[in-house]
Amino acid sequence: MELMAPPLRISQEAAWLQFNRRVLLQTERPDFPVLERLRFLEIWAANLDEFFSARISRAFLEERGSEGYQALLLEAKSQADFAEDCYRRFLPELEPLGMRVLPPDKLSKAELRYFGAYLAEEVAPKTDLIQPEGLADLSSRALYFASGEGLLQTLIRLPESIPRLLPIPGREGSFVRLGELVRHRNDLFLPYPAKLYELRVIRLASLERSRVDWDELPEALEARLDGKVSHLEVEEDFPPHWAEAIREALGLAAEEVFRLAPPLDLRFVNILVAAGPAKERFAPRPPEKPRRFIKNPWTTLDEQDLLLYHPYQDYRAVEAFAWAAANDPKVEAIRATLYRLGRENGVAEALISAAKAGKDVAVLLEARARFDELLNLYWSLRFRKAGVRVLPLPAKKVHAKALWVRRGRRAYAHLGTGNYNALNGSLYTDLSLFTANPKVTKEVAAFFRALEARHAPAPTLIKTGPAIREALLEAIQGEAHKKGQIILKFNHLTDPTILAALEEAAEKGARVDLIVRSTLTLLHPKFHARSLVGRYLEHARVAAFKNKGKWTVWAGSADLMPRNLDRRYELFFPVLDPEAKRQVLRLLKSQLKDDVNTFILYHDGSQKALWKGKHNAQQL
Predict the structure, then answer these.
(1) pLDDT for the residue 224
(2) Please, which residues bridge with residue 601 across strands?
(3) pTM check: above 0.90
(4) Residue 308: left (phi > 0), alpha (psi -120 to 50), or beta?
(5) Cα angle, residue 315 at apex, residues 451 and 490 outer, rounded to 5°
């Protein structure tokens, strides 16, 4: 009898870096326009910064020096080397589009005089000069230049308000790097002639206190600036003795310092993407509009539920639902959970309008949404001024996506898998369920009442907290036989208890299909695991179980991670409407057939790209 290979368990950090490699590999897709491939280089760069500022936190604080930690750094360095080479390969590809990044020695005398004046007038006054004793206080993600005569004498911090790429006047599509100009005219920044060398650091960005309320948030955000340095990048020609001095001042190990070919920090390529010709970006894809629903959501939902899949179906239907509630004189009360709103937000504006019209409006605005805390603080001030009640923050972070409306004797609800954010709604794939089903709307109302009373919500039909795990475990165990079938689609699947149940079901003969975008920490020989990376960011969270031929389908806000199930208030809801259920199953089965945006995840930790097939699940 042939022995089955053992399952492979990998860390969340390693799984996430594998995902970021999948993002980086999109730069080589033959079916993507050049500017879209370049966009993925910018996404990769931003992701790697996030890795060293947030996702590596546990490993950095608990496992530094271990074999696993060293492997993370080796993989990150391998990706960074690939990305630098990728940038250089893109430059000649851009030339046929009329786009160039020129060094200063390719500029005319008149252009050099212009940029000299620009540096003197716009850049030098905003540039910080830092002495070596200030090394420990370097800012996260800023770009610095080091200089000196023999010894390291000065650090120059480039102002983050100045773009890293500057257009050359009179040469449409041509740019020069700010850093190269500063090198060329270092006399404007230093009192002595010296070479300049690029460097940057990344600091851990977690709040010092995970439990903060609105009054404490500003102070907590200030404290975040003091996070430990987790990563240092220096350009490849950086003087070794300077790099060593900086490393020691920052308390880093040698392997935490990356030597890379300049330019460092490739996020600036987004300027090239934005400036390039439209024909080299994805053609606009107008979303389907549920016109009848937008015109009168109440009549539509009185007849049946509506399920939408964004961005293929217009996210603005969510905003239209909120505005319909704000403008309808029969609507008395509105409740919403809000997580990442962005600077402009139609749902938030509708809630403000409703409150100004005298309606009872209350929101759970999650102040602790990582990296969005300041924007949410901005929205809390606007809400309070308009009369929207901002509910006190519970001990657990609220990541649920719910909007509830009371209109006369009926209640209506929207439940989703993504944030109430129009930009995300155009770039992320997410599910929206609109319903007037009393079984659902009563539980959503009870969820908000519990939050307002500062009690732990405990709905029964809809699940939150550990009850999500319990419901999924029961469903998985019910499929643990030769005719069982399980389909899970999540961004992250790392919960040990759920993974163990999936492992047992697969070994008992069930078909286990996993569509996991980012982190999957158990790779089993009997799992059928894949990751989709394409034009849109796959973001919906869905679970489906064959249930003896009568499929049950769940969707919601939660990824299957211990933090989401144990330390957050999420909402996971059953899709009860038969047509809505069929829609979700068609979506899942289409993604299981995809051979254009797919990476197969093998049980030995390897992955294989499927790009040249005929079934593109992102072209619904």
Answers:
(1) 54
(2) 529, 607
(3) yes
(4) beta
(5) 65
The CATH classification number of 298-453 equals: 3.30.870.10
DSSP 406-422: EETTEEEEEEESS-S-H
| pLDDT in the model for residue 1 | 43
- 14-31 confidence digits (pLDDT tens): 999 999 999 999 999 999
Measuring CA to CA, which residue among 532, 559, 520 is closest to residue 543?
Answer: 559
175, two tokens:
């740019």
Which regions of the chain carry the CATH code 3.30.1840.10?
Answer: 32-280
Instruction: Report, as an integer, the average pLDDT of 88-114.
Output: 96
Closest CA relative to residue 270, chosen from 281, 259, 261? 281
Q: What span, in angstroms and rounded, lies between the C-alpha atoms of 490 and 366?
A: 22
Q: Are 569 and 397 in contact (CB under 8 A)?
A: yes
- Has domain 463-610 been given CATH number 3.30.450.20? no
Whether pLDDT at 216 is above 70:
no
Contacts within 8 Å (CB) and 24+ apart, 56-61: 56/13, 56/204, 56/230, 56/231, 57/204, 57/206, 57/230, 58/12, 58/13, 59/11, 59/13, 60/204, 60/228, 60/230
pLDDT bin (cut points 50, 70, 90) of residue 374 is confident
Give the closest residue to 403 by CA, choosing from 341, 463, 347, 329.
347
In this structure, CATH architecture of domain 32-280: 2-Layer Sandwich (3.30)
